[in-house]
Design a protein that fits this description.
The structure is a homodimer of 350-residue chains. Chain A has 13 helices and 12 strands. The first copy, chain A, is α/β, with parallel strands linked by helices and 350 residues long. Chain A has 2 domains: 181 residues, 3-Layer(aba) Sandwich (Isopropylmalate Dehydrogenase), CATH 3.40.718.10; 152 residues, Isopropylmalate Dehydrogenase. The longest helix of chain A has 19 residues. The complex binds 3-isopropylmalic acid (2 copies). Chains A, B: Keywords: Amino-acid biosynthesis, Branched-chain amino acid biosynthesis, Cytoplasm, Leucine biosynthesis, Magnesium, Manganese, Metal-binding, NAD, Oxidoreductase.
Chain lengths: 350, 350
């Protein structure tokens, strides 16, 4: 197989973790006779520093011409506390999602028995937790009209959804549910929001097409409780953009190890793979960041190419390092290995 | 002291828990020589059933003429899954908040050492947790323009904030912080939303007036993680309406006992006190619901009247029942006491 991969190293620890994924992908290519061609491109604070633009046109171009995108992380604190900043790193990521129509963000929530001691939750809470969150990624309040007046005494953001925007991500979520435990939970705020009522209506109308899937509905405030109190009840969770941002990060704490959670953002053509952790600037350049989130994202990328066997081997490599205590500082602050060492070990394993 | 209290029993378990609070308030009145005059009024599903209107004008009238409002719970599942319902119980509560300008919802997050076994979090996580959430309650996406087209293929909700709306709740939160550990955390999504950038700007501008308070900022997705991973870092948390709905319910799981968490919603004149649990229709009429959330809300009401000593005695009564294992079924499914018994015990204690 011959594939083009756009690589966006991004900000903070983005470059060093992504480099480990490339090592692993190279090992996969060599072992299984594939060719992966990488093209590096810029986005985020890094792109602003170098070009003044958080998402240069060239990056969009490269991504559109690639079979998949491997992405590190985005963001720099110097932009966060300046309400007047004209250009922000995050604009790059948001524009990329929109330009490539990456309408579904997919986040598996899984736990590792050998890492249970790291979880803030009790062991009982972690039993049988295995769900996946589908977050709509190119609509809602993120992309609605936003305005503030000259004197900055007033601001607004508009949240809107069309039936089509809801349907395409919903179909994907229903299809995943059919391949899993056949349960789909829509998280919304239908007792208050008009957009939520549209979501609920559309899901109710699609449900008969997936009659083997049991559908239920949860208000987002209740969902925020249930995710902690009884996470095993969930199979596939579907929600709109803003709620998805909040509850998928909330759910990421369950495993106790943010550093090893992957994600995929998919559209009709392109797909982008990134660890869920942020740019974590304090750790940048120290070779201490956990590369497993990125490497497991690379496994999702292999699945996306239909290379399921290869993806499986990468996942086994990851589990092998965890079980043999080859872990980074975030997992074991005393006996830890470097980012690059973990990358080497998994590449060798493959 | 002579005070008028509007009583809204509301839906589900609302009536039976509120009745216990009235018992306790009556005991306080008798013991300390006060007079509390109650006027019952309707809101929610109960009001729809009886009048067709989730908030009859008479209820607003009574509330405006009272010194405080004691409220049970709202909501009935028959309205939740009907995206076409014209009248909803929740509209009553939202309209009441707006009519009385109850702009700040205040929720203390506290843990009870003797109930630690009920928490989904590990004991380590619960150490030193003591914070309070200020949620803006009469603005944002809850009260913005909402629309859907005739064919229901499109919907929108508008989120807006003015500087005044932010300032009034912020001043209150800053003042609380000054009386506590002097830390205020604003939760927003300033990397995406224009309204969040206005919030951040206003808080930055007010901060010098409260120079003894340390201010920090957290994106809501990060806050959703931090509340579980490291809750003791918080003192006063301030946020807008929708984010507050989500993170205050999320934070309520920390203690492991939803049934005993109180809340206050305050404005310039009126103030409303309610347990944070919902109407929980499955338990209604069975005398098994936990009345402590309502009774602790009544304690907040006494504080609001300046009756701090009386409030303290009620809180001691609550702790006394918990420590002596006089608890409802949600706390101890085997050896439990009835709702009304707990009410009697605390009234006697007072
Ligand atoms: C960086 C930010 C704009 C982004 C978002 O809110 O979508 C991030 O939090 C995420 O979840 O990918
Ligand atoms: C009932 C509902 C409208 C309400 C809200 O979302 O504000 C409730 O969840 C709350 O938090 O008081």
């Amino acid at each position: 197989m011959n594939k083009k991969i756009a690589v966006i190293l991004g900000d903070g620890i983005g470059p060093e973790v992504t480099q480990q994924s490339i090592k692993v992908l190279d090992a996969v290519a060599k072992q299984y006779g594939h060719e992966f061609h990488y093209t590096e491109c810029l986005m985020g604070a890094d792109a602003i520093d170098k070009t003044g633009n958080p998402l240069p046109d060239e990056t969009i171009e490269v991504c559109l011409n690639s079979d998949a995108i491997l992405f590190g992380a985005i963001g720099h604190p110097k932009y966060d506390n300046d309400p007047n900043a004209k250009v922000r790193p995050e604009q790059g990521l948001l524009k990329l999602r929109k330009s490539l129509q990456l309408f579904a963000n997919i986040r598996p929530v899984i736990t590792y028995p050998s890492l249970q001691h790291l979880s803030p939750l009790k062991a009982k809470q972690l039993e049988e937790v295995d769900f996946i969150i589908f977050r709509e990624l190119t609509g809602g309040i993120y992309f609605g009209k936003k305005e503030t007046n000259e004197e900055k005494t007033y601001a607004f953001d508009e949240c809107s959804y069309s039936r089509e925007e809801i349907e395409r991500v919903a179909h994907l979520a229903f299809q995943y549910a059919q391949k899993r435990r056949k349960k789909l939970t829509l998280v919304d705020k239908a007792n208050v929001l008009e957009t939520s009522r549209l979501w609920r209506k559309v899901i109710q109308e699609l449900a008969p097409q997936y009659s083997d899937v049991a559908v239920d509905f949860l208000f987002v405030d209740n969902a925020a409780m249930q995710i902690i109190v009884n996470p095993k009840q969930f199979d596939v969770v579907l929600t709109e953009n803003m709620f998805g941002d909040i509850i998928s990060d909330e759910a990421s704490v369950i495993s106790g190890s943010l550093g090893l959670l992957p994600s995929a953002s998919v559209g009709n053509g392109s797909a982008l793979f990134e660890p869920i952790h942020g740019s974590y600037p304090q750790a940048a350049g120290k070779d201490i960041a956990n590369p497993l989130g990125s490497i497991l994202s690379a496994a999702m990328l292999l699945d996306h190419f239909g290379l399921n066997k290869e993806a499986q081997v990468v996942r086994e490599g990851v589990e092998w390092t965890i079980n043999n205590k080859f872990v980074t500082k975030d997992i074991d602050p005393v006996n830890f290995y470097f980012t690059s060492t973990i990358g080497d070990l998994i590449a060798d394993f493959v």
